[in-house]
Each structure stands twice: as structure tokens, then as C-alpha cells.
Fold this protein.
Amino acid sequence: MSSFEECPNCGRTPGHGASFTVYECEKCGTMYCDSCGGEKCPECGTDKKQEAGECHRQE
């Protein structure tokens, strides 16, 4: 799993000590978070995804 500073799709960063999961679409390869994609890929609309990594707050 990779570590990200921000969501590769929307640029969202973690808030006060929080982290969030970044997903990769199994169909088109787009990487996104729950905020910009929710349960479906923002590019192709499929719900087939896998965890690509975590986005952690940078100190």
C-alpha cells in the first residue's frame, strides 16, 4: 500500500490528525477518495475498487 499526501483526484488533505483511504478503480485505474468518488469511480462510474493506500496528515 502506498502513502499519499493528498487525494490524487480531488486534492483533499487529511484534517486534524485524521487519515483516509485512497482507492484505485479496477476498471480505469483512477485513484480517488470517498469525498470525490464515494462508492463509485468519479471517471467511469463502476463500483469495483481496491485500496491503493492511505493519506496521512503531514507534520
